[in-house]
Amino acid sequence: MYIVAIGWLFVVLMVALTETSVTAGILSFFFYGLAPLALFLWLVGTPARRRRRSVVMADEEVRQQDGGNAGRNE
User: Fold this and answer.
1) pLDDT for 21
2) What is the pTM of this model?
3) CA-CA distance, 16 to 13, in Å (whole number)?
């Protein structure tokens, strides 16, 4: 996934370098490159974030059920 992102940024950088002014190049790089790529990576990363959150929540439930009571070994 990251190789696609790097390739996309390279292509957009080349397009931005061919613009007639510096301002147009910066705006092209941002609106054709960074903004769509950030949205894409955020959307593609959503399932991984959900899995991580569910694992953390499951770990917290196990800790709550355990109660931290060591009994005689405390």
Assistant:
1) 95
2) 0.62
3) 5
